[in-house]
Amino acid sequence: MNPMPENAADRPPSPRRSGDGDNVAVDLTAVVVAVTGNQPCVLTVEEATALPSGPFEHRHRSLQAGLRRWVEQQTGHRLGYTEQLYTFADRDRIAGGRAISISYLGLTCKEEREGSRDPAWRSWYDYFPWEDHRAGTPSLLPGLLEPRLQAWAEEAEDTETRDERRLRAAITFGFDGRPWNEELVLQRYELLYEAMLVEEAMRDRAGGGPALAPGRAMIADHRRILATGIARLRTKIKYRPMVFELMPPAFTLLQLQLTVEALAGRLVHKQNFRRLIEQQELVEETGEMSTQTRGRPAKLFRFRQAVLMERTVAGTRLPLMRS
Amino acid sequence: MNPMPENAADRPPSPRRSGDGDNVAVDLTAVVVAVTGNQPCVLTVEEATALPSGPFEHRHRSLQAGLRRWVEQQTGHRLGYTEQLYTFADRDRIAGGRAISISYLGLTCKEEREGSRDPAWRSWYDYFPWEDHRAGTPSLLPGLLEPRLQAWAEEAEDTETRDERRLRAAITFGFDGRPWNEELVLQRYELLYEAMLVEEAMRDRAGGGPALAPGRAMIADHRRILATGIARLRTKIKYRPMVFELMPPAFTLLQLQLTVEALAGRLVHKQNFRRLIEQQELVEETGEMSTQTRGRPAKLFRFRQAVLMERTVAGTRLPLMRS
DNA sequence: TCCATTATGCTCATTATGAGTATAATCATG
DNA sequence: CATGATTATACTCATAATGAGCATAATGGA
To answer: Buried-most residue among A217, A297, B60, B144 (CB within 10 A)?
Structure first.
């Protein structure tokens, strides 16, 4: 066959572009997600302070290949589904060069091995406690973050900036009766960073004072990358059948629902959820029933692989003509 | 203030990650789009064979800053709205190193200066003639590409591969009565590449034979990057108010519609289109009327900037509970 | 004045959504 | 063994969003 080189285009030397640029170090960083029971977990290293990552090297056949290697080497986990997240660049911190980090999102189904609580997996709400709204609005939001952000807004020099800050905080965090938007994970983290409410902001600015928002910090910008990954996942599960990458081969609709809820950080309407899944024909019955603990047994379903071919994309938001 | 460094995270040297990686050359490439009348245009350089691009250098404050510089320098155009597209890496072509290219999508409103037909702007359908379905299915699809792809499928060794190829071609190009999906720009290009129907595939493989699909080729992987940009735009205009970046300050709904149609490569239902725009309150009347050539004068509208704050994101596809 | 042309208003059937209500199976247990 | 607690599934119903048209309103030019 002659497949296009995977993420690897040909770029023949051209006078304008090759060689005359400065070389930089390139890092590959992975946000690997799995859901256990009702916790959305992320694969970590170094005492849960970092995401698996490592430099992109010559020997790697491609970006993804390099990423896979590092993740496997550092965590022993094999990557399944992956997609590129974002490429970040930073100021000159590394002597004689710059660093760029290319981040990826990976999804896997972590089979729950009883007893062996792998410490490398951490609930992502350990890092973003304000993101879990499944049991209602977390008390730390009105109790801590809202007043802190309010204070930050007050600090502003002029009225305009102050109002702007207030509005931004209200919109991203859903204050003043505004609706909570679970997709704004990154914007919220960035706002807290600006307001110096996360440890990373202190560290980067060499400022003083304690971190005021709860939630574990991470090395470098890993927490930001994690936020980017969560945001992507929360956005994309709504129009692409991504959840199934996190599910075992057969599952009940409740399991599927719990997984979605774990990711979205909020509850969904049970009956309407199954209606949605069924009307979109995303799954098919396996014929088996689940042997579970309590309640009426549930049918087991499997993902209809055919969906991937049929509808590579979801739907339109434009009133297209047919013909 | 203390804004997060724009795309520039802090990455303190850590034993595992800094310095021990191989350095690589990083290129920045831009897909800059504007719509003139009813043509979606892309900014090109080097006789329309390349996208504006250049190496990422130390002096650049950030990726975007570097990109801006190159685009301005090579084309004289100032970038407005930009967003990152994708990061590609390639095999070792450049002596002693590898190259990575970080691509961006830029949107601008090119005011039509009568007479001065800037040759740097090219309709993107010059590169992807099979993507324009505004006047119905282009004849080159059933007339040329379908038989070619069919032939390519036949070439397959085993039946399985052959059926797979057929199905893939049918789905991405809408053969066998399947619906046309305008978002699959990249998949279509990649399929043509695999089937050796675009010039780039020949060049990269050092194979022989003429390019069989019409449409201009580009340097390196620029055409693929362009396809990525078009695909992103076609997908995203459906759920984000991106079109307005391409519009002048005031416009009629027909102009807006023509712009969308140019981008999507297909026609939309006029009445329903305005209903959609109005019900979503994306625009507001300026009070003026357009002084145009024919027909009843139309109201002029402007984009409601407030939308950007109100609804950072579109809507849900999950049956979320309120509370 | 009549027509081609574009703008706008409205209707109507069909689907999709948001919120519940009503049953149906299981299991643990008194 | 009947009773709850618990979870699965079926339906209902009002409202909103969509897909397709039909109808009417303004303009400029022939």
So the answer is: B60
